[in-house]
Design goal:
Blueprint lengths: L1 H14 L13 H10 L13 E6 L6 H16 L3 E6 L3 H13 L4 E4 L4 H13 L4 E4 L3 H4 L6 E4 L2 H14 L4 E6 L5 H13 L3 E6 L5 H14 L5 E4 L2 H14 L4 E5 L3 H8 L6 E3 L2 H18 L9 E2 L3 E3 L1 H12 L4
Helix pairs in contact: 3-12, 4-5, 7-8, 9-10, 11-13
Length: 334
């Protein structure tokens, strides 16, 4: 842990001296302020050409998870002398058009998510045809290699779901509801399917409109009121965990709230017992490693994984680990 804290301190210092060029990020005042504060002082650690890498994700506006991914990518970009461009759209066709735009700019590398792989296949193929190396990140591990990407960085969503099911068994849970906040996202479907595969109890899926938190809250509350046997709610993203907590209060339920992903609020609620556990896939590492791997490929034809996914999770986080990780979530790197 001492060695990790030393590394973390170095990373934090680096975060305060970042210089980059790129597109606007998603919401998140903390991340934006950090970028502005760091803007004029960053120095690359290498003298390789100033290549341009584009990251295109399926993030919606204001999704703090992607602020963490982007932060990791930007810090790696400074170290590697990379001109980093970030763009996002939660509509698959629009995301594909953003990939096409990056191809038209003749960037030197593309990092892309495959939450809705069928809609992204042609755009990734165009990048490959143009000779632009592609790395997939976060979602689409099953499709990444088939689409011609060099590597995939993230967690296997089915395996992550299976880990949740096993944890629920350890906790003696009997009936759970899995909250899917983005219809059509194959990773979300895989998570809930993984939970169902290993969970000894009963699991139901509940689809909600993730872009409208009041609707999410009311939908979860109504479900808990209608079925008092539900003893667990599993959300698929950190922002939805707190909404589920409010829904539990509205419904007068005692269901445990567990979640995928980690942020400062989740860490605090794990520590005080409001939440049961979280599944961390290390989004900062996903962004950082994606840029670093593209740089290594351009510089030295290196590639980790041998064509297999490079996993960043899952890691089950409970109250016992929350205090240690809380300081990292507050600075936006976990």
């Amino acid at each position: 842990m001492a060695r990790f804290r030393t590394w973390a301190g170095i990373a934090l210092a680096g975060a305060l001296c970042v210089s980059l060029a790129g597109c606007s990020s998603t919401g998140g005042k903390r991340a934006e302020d950090a970028r502005k504060a760091a803007a004029a002082q960053g120095k690359a650690a290498v003298n390789t050409p100033r290549w341009t890498f584009a990251m295109i994700t399926h993030s919606g506006d204001g999704d703090t998870f992607w602020d963490i991914v982007q932060s990791g990518a930007e810090q790696a970009a400074v170290k590697d002398n990379i001109n980093f461009l970030y763009s996002h759209d939660d509509e698959a066709q629009q995301q594909a058009q953003l990939v096409d735009a990056a191809v038209d700019k003749k960037v030197d590398g593309i990092i892309v998510t495959l939450a809705k792989p069928d809609a992204m296949k042609a755009a990734v193929a165009r990048a490959e045809k143009a000779g632009i190396p592609v790395i997939t990140v976060n979602s689409g591990s099953a499709e990444s290699k088939a689409f011609g990407a060099l590597a995939h960085i993230g967690q296997d969503e089915t395996v992550a779901g299976e880990a949740v099911g096993e944890e629920l068994n350890k906790r003696g849970r009997k009936k759970a509801v899995c909250i899917l906040h983005e219809q059509g996202n194959v990773g979300h479907e895989q998570r809930c399917a993984g939970v169902k595969k290993t969970f000894d109890g009963e699991l139901e899926n509940l689809y909600v409109n993730g872009t409208n938190m009041p609707d999410v809250q009311s939908a979860i509350s109504a479900k808990l009121q209608a079925d008092q046997a539900i003893d667990t709610v599993v959300t698929l993203g950190a922002p939805y965990a707190d909404t589920a907590v409010k829904a539990r209060q509205d419904a007068g339920s005692k269901a445990e709230i567990d979640t995928f992903d980690l942020n400062a609020k989740v860490a605090a609620e794990l520590k005080d017992g409001t939440l049961g556990f979280a599944v961390d896939q290390q989004p900062y590492l996903q962004g950082y490693q994606a840029v670093d791997l593209l740089w290594l490929y351009r510089y030295n034809a290196n590639m980790l994984g041998g064509g297999q996914p490079v996993f960043t999770g899952p890691q089950i986080i409970t109250k016992d680990q929350a205090a240690t990780l809380e300081e990292y979530t507050k600075r936006g790197t976990r």
